[in-house]
Design goal:
The structure is a homodimer of 302-residue chains. The first copy, chain A, has 302 residues and is α/β, with parallel strands linked by helices. The first copy, chain A, folds into 2 domains: 169 residues, NAD(P)-binding Rossmann-like Domain (Rossmann fold); 89 residues, 6-phosphogluconate dehydrogenase C-terminal like domain (6-phosphogluconate dehydrogenase C-terminal fold). The first copy, chain A, is built from 12 helices and 9 strands. In chain A, the strands form 2 sheets. Chain A has a 6-stranded parallel beta sheet, with helices on both faces. In chain A, strands 7-8-9 form a 3-stranded mixed beta sheet, with helices on one face. In chain A, helix 5 links the parallel strand 5 and strand 6. Chain A is globular, with a radius of gyration of 21 Å. At the A-B interface, helix 7, helix 8, helix 9, helix 10 and helix 11 of A face helix 7, helix 8, helix 9, helix 10 and helix 11 of B.
Chain lengths: 302, 302
C-alpha cells in the first residue's frame, strides 16, 4: 500500500516536526492536521506545519492513508474516538507516544477493527507546542514500531517506509519490552531530573537564586530535562506505571548502596562505578547517539 | 600585592585551562606547572599549558606569588606537603576543588602559617587530563572564593582580581555554605547520574546495547555527567560527606513521594511538580547559566 495522505492529530513538537519533515524532504505525501486547541491550529496554519489544518479531527482524517496521533498518551483514546467517524476503512492508525502497551489498548478500545500500529520515534527536545517543531527532529534517530499480533504486513511495511523516509532508523519491538527499555532510557531519567529540580527549589538553607546561579556544576543539565511538557510526562508515568516502578526500585536500591559507600568512606566502590559508567558514555558517542564534543558542544560564552 | 607568577600544581582540565586562559588573555603573569604524572608533564609542555613545566612541585612553586592546586580534593594535603619546601613566604595558596571545608583543613594542616584562600571555579566538562583544557573554560562562569577567618584582605583582593582577569565572576562564601550549595547544584546531580547509568548497565531484561541505542530519550544526558573523572568525584563525595548525605536524604524523600503518586495514579501531584520545575529552567537560561537553544543546541544528524 502507498501512503499518499497523512493526517496529524495534535500539532505540537512531534506532530509539527512530522509535517515539516515531510515538506522539507519533498515527499509526495499530502498532509492534514488537527489540534483541539484553536490557538495551536492557528499557529500551525501560520507556520505551515501541514498542508491543511481542519477544525475537527474527523474532517482532518478524511481520506488519510495514515493517521498519526501526536497527543499525550493519556489523551489517545479520546482523540481516537473523536476522529472515528471520518476514518477511511483502509487507514493505518499510529502514534508517537512514549508508552506503548497502554496506547495500544486505548486505541483498540476506541477503534475496534481498525489497523492500529503504534510507534515511538525516540526523539524530542525539552520544548513543546506548535512553534517547537523542526524538520530534522527525526534524522538519524530510532523509531520503534510495536506491531500488534496479526498485523497486516503491508501496512507495517508502509509505516516502516514512512519513518525511514523521514530519516529515522526503524526497529520493531514487542510493546511490553519497549515499555521496559524506555522506562530505563527515558522515563526514569526524566523522573529523577524532575525530582532533583524540585528538591533543589524547596530547600530552606540554600536559596533558589543560589541554585540557579551555580547550576553550571551539573544541575543545569537536569533543568533542561525537567522543562519537558508536564502533561505529556504526567501521562507517561501514569500509563507506564509497572515498568517505571520496577526500574525505580532498582535505581533506589543502587542509590542506597552508594549512600552507604559514602557514609562508610568506601572509596573503592565509588571509583569502580564511576569508571564503569565512563565506558557507557564512550559507547553512546561511538554509536552516534550523542554529540562527542565536551559539554554537548555547549558554548562557554564570554 | 601583585600576582606576576602563578604556579599550577596538577595539569588536567582545570589546571591546563588556567594556564591557557592566562596566555590567551595576554595577562602579564608568568606561569609554571607541575604534575606528578610524567606523561601529563610531557603533554602539558607540548601543548604549552604553562610557560615552564618542572619535574618537582617544590621547583614549580619557587618565586610564585600564587600557587593553585588543581588536584583531586583527596590529594590536596599530600600535594601541599610536596611543594612546601619551595614556597615563597608571601605566596597565596589556593585551589579549584569542589568541596571547600575539607580542603581548607587539609591545606592548613599541611602548610601551617601559609596564606591559604580556597576557591572553586564552577566550571568544567566531562573530560579530563592535559588535553582537555581550553582557554575559555572560566569565561562568564562563577568562581566562589571561601576566605578563612582572618584572611589578609590584600591577598583576597589579589586572588579575586586574578579570577576576574580570567573572565570569571567572583563570589565570596563561607566554606560550609559552599559545600551545601554545591552538594545540590553539582554533587547530587553527579551522584544520581552515576547511579542511573550504573543501574541501566546492570539490567538483565534490557540489554546494554538497547540502553545505548535508545539513549536519546534522556539517558544520554546522564551518561555525559557520568563520564566525569572518577578519582575527582570519588574524592568529592568522600570529602563532602555530610552535605551530600543530607541532600541525598531530601532527594530520596521527594523521589519516594513521586513513586507513591505514580503508584496511586495521582496525576495532579506529578503535573504540579512538572510545571514548577519548568519555571526553574527559564531562570537558569535568563541568568545566562545555560544555552537557551533546545536540546543544548545539540545537532540533530544529517
Amino acid at each position: 500500500m502507498t501512503i499518499s495522505r497523512v493526517a496529524i492529530i495534535g500539532l505540537g513538537l512531534l506532530g509539527g516536526s512530522i509535517g515539516l519533515a515531510i515538506k522539507a524532504r519533498g515527499l509526495d505525501i499530502a498532509t492534514t492536521g488537527y489540534d483541539r486547541d484553536p490557538a495551536v491550529r492557528a499557529k500551525a496554519a501560520e507556520r505551515g506545519l501541514v498542508g491543511q489544518v481542519y477544525g475537527t479531527a474527523a474532517e482532518a482524517v478524511t481520506d488519510a492513508d495514515l493517521v498519526i496521533l501526536c497527543v499525550p498518551v493519556g489523551a489517545m483514546g479520546a482523540a481516537a474516538h473523536e476522529l472515528a467517524l471520518g476514518l477511511a476503512p483502509h487507514a493505518i492508525i499510529s502514534d508517537v507516544g512514549s508508552s506503548k502497551e497502554a496506547v495500544a489498548e486505548a486505541l483498540a478500545a476506541a477503534l475496534p477493527g481498525a489497523c492500529i500500529i503504534p510507534a515511538h520515534p525516540v526523539a524530542g527536545t525539552e520544548q513543546s507546542g506548535p512553534e517547537a517543531g523542526f524538520a530534522t527532529l527525526f534524522s538519524g534517530r530510532w523509531c520503534i514500531i510495536t506491531p500488534p499480533d496479526g498485523v497486516d504486513p503491508a501496512a507495517l511495511a508502509a509505516l516502516s517506509d514512512f519513518w525511514t523516509q523521514l530519516g529515522s532508523k526503524v526497529e520493531l519491538m514487542d510493546a511490553a519490552h519497549h515499555d521496559l527499555v524506555l522506562a530505563v532510557t527515558s522515563h526514569i531519567p526524566h523522573l529523577i531530573a524532575y525530582t532533583i529540580v524540585g528538591t533543589a527549589s524547596d530547600l530552606e538553607d540554600v536559596t533558589q537564586s543560589e541554585v540557579i546561579k551555580y547550576s553550571a556544576g551539573g544541575f543545569r543539565d537536569f533543568t533542561r530535562i525537567a522543562a519537558s511538557d508536564p502533561v505529556m510526562w504526567r501521562d507517561v508515568f501514569l500509563t507506564n506505571k509497572g515498568a517505571v516502578l520496577e526500574m525505580l526500585g532498582r535505581f533506589s536500591e543502587d542509590l542506597t548502596a552508594l549512600q552507604r559507600a559514602i557514609r562508610s568512606g568506601d572509596g573503592d566502590t565509588l571509583f569502580d562505578l564511576f569508571t564503569r559508567t565512563r565506558a557507557i558514555r564512550r559507547q553512546v558517542i561511538e554509536q552516534g547517539q550523542d554529540d562527542e564534543r565536551p559539554d554537548f558542544g555547549r558554548g562557554h560564552g564570554e
